[in-house]
Design goal:
The complex is a heterodimer of chains A (about 260) and B (about 170).
Chain A lengths: L10 H21 L8 H29 L3 H6 L19 H22 L5 H29 L3 H19 L8 H6 L6 H18 L6 E4 L2 E4 L14 H16 L6
Antiparallel strand pairs in A: 1-2
Chain B lengths: L10 H8 L18 E7 L2 E6 L9 H14 L5 E5 L12 H9 L2 E2 L8 H6 L12 E5 L7 E6 L5 E5 L3
The chains are: A mainly alpha (about 260), B alpha/beta (about 170).
Chain lengths: ~260, ~170
């Protein structure tokens, strides 16, 4: 299975790096609940989910390493914050538990539709990795969807918090589908079907679940297509980030920076 | 001239040595029983061991890689390479019956055969590893490690773990 080294600005590398950066940041945000979750079971659940996400980032960074020679440690710990290509969604602070639930649910569905599309990718490396990650992700989705459905219409307070979380996270989640540079090349060569298609699949899955939990969302279906009535919070793929990412990267890199390259 | 290494070492001896490495999180099982060590290639240029992680986020990967390298070097192998493979992805379906029985002896209920949908895999009754009653309930599908889930047995009133079907 030969891997021909793509150029430094190759769209395939950008695609893989975006996935890796998303998982790394979300994993860290999830881990911020360890010791602080509202109930013990969610503390355990989010610690597991965080560990899974960090593991998935390692899988993508390792694939990136095969193509570039740059180790996952270098990519995670030595890049300045302004160089990351994660979507903005995963950089925002953890918020209240409702925001965390909605953000994680949105991200998990997006990941599922993306990975499922990679199962028929022309890139065999992406295909193999996708299958492994999908199986682990199925537990996240089961858990998060269950939480969303229960909290969406449980009490007045839970509904209020969940609606506020959806209002905040929905436009942010649309940023997951911001195209990486030269995405058309990946679509033409059969790597994946393109973010516009994935976004429609995502919308088709999350909308009924949200509506069924009495949560409203600025989107509507007309003639078989879902239209969005809010501006997406994009920029991450083009390295246009909010200051939240600086805080997050300072946090996750601080120990490494004390002794770069040290063995632990 | 290409250096020739590993003369006098055969693959069987390597597999035997690798078969001694215990899983750090479930030490009653070895890496070969867990089907984590997938393949060994041996030629005059070196040894290449292929590992397939149980979970992508397994924190013991570096530890296992180091132990493989150390043991093979100690037995005289040179040019040892350990690589990861996700193809085919590791699955609980790879564990054989004797491995599953060993899990029970340390209070871990073995994983059920995987079904197409996760919900269907999880729908089957779960037997307590201590008293074997199926009057059990899920406490959490997430456990103390990525590979384990938490259950409680209503019959003998003991908590127990189950290997997460994946």
């Amino acid at each position: 299975m030969a891997i021909s080294p793509p150029s430094a600005t190759s769209p395939l590398l950008a695609f893989i790096l975006a996935l890796a950066d998303d998982e790394l940041m979300l994993g860290h945000r999830d881990a911020e609940w360890t010791g602080h979750a509202p109930i013990l079971e969610e503390d355990i659940a989010f610690s597991n989910i965080a560990q899974d996400e960090l593991g998935h980032s390692l899988v993508w960074y390792s694939l990136h390493e095969q193509m570039t020679g740059k180790s996952p440690d270098v990519m995670a710990f030595e890049r300045p914050w302004a160089d990351f290509t994660c979507c903005r969604l995963v950089t925002y602070p953890r918020g209240d538990f409702a925001y965390t639930v909605v953000r994680q649910y949105f991200f998990d569905v997006a990941e599922k539709v993306r990975l499922e599309s990679l199962r028929s990718s022309s890139s065999s490396e992406l295909k193999d990795v996708a299958g492994k990650i999908l199986r682990e992700e199925s537990y996240h989705l089961l858990h998060l969807r269950g939480l969303l459905e229960r909290l969406g219409d449980a009490t007045e307070e839970s509904h209020r918090r969940m609606q506020a979380a959806v209002d905040a996270a929905f436009p942010q989640a649309l940023g997951i589908f911001e195209p990486v540079p030269e995405e058309e090349h990946l679509v033409r060569t059969g790597v994946f079907p393109g973010n516009a298609i994935l976004e429609q699949e995502w919308l088709n899955e999350v909308l009924p679940v949200l509506l069924g939990s009495t949560l409203s969302v600025p989107a509507s279906k007309q003639n078989g297509r879902i239209s969005i009535h809010v501006s997406p919070d994009v920029g991450g793929r083009r390295k246009s980030h909010t200051p939240h990412l600086k805080q997050l990267v300072d946090d996750l890199q601080q120990v490494y920076r004390i002794a770069p390259g040290a063995g632990w | 001239m290409v250096r020739t290494v590993n003369k006098g070492i055969d693959k069987e001896a390597i597999w035997k040595e690798l078969g001694k490495i215990r899983d750090p999180e479930i030490p009653i099982l070895t890496l070969t029983e867990m089907r984590i060590i997938r393949d060994v290639q041996l030629d005059e240029k070196g040894v290449c061991v292929t590992m397939s992680p149980t979970f992508a986020g397994c924190p013991a990967l570096d530890h296992m890689r180091d132990e493989i390298r150390t043991r093979l070097r100690d037995m005289g192998c040179e040019e040892v390479e350990v690589r990861l493979s996700f193809s085919p992805p590791w699955s609980t379906d790879m564990l054989d019956e004797s491995t599953k029985l060993k899990l029970e002896t340390v209070g871990i209920t073995p994983p059920p055969p995987l079904k197409q949908r996760l919900e269907d895999s999880l729908a089957e009754p779960v037997a307590c590893p201590y008293c074997h009653s199926t009057t059990t309930r899920v406490e959490s599908l997430f456990g103390a490690t990525l590979c384990k889930q938490l259950y409680f047995c209503e019959a003998c009133k003991q908590p127990f773990e189950r290997f997460k079907p994946v």
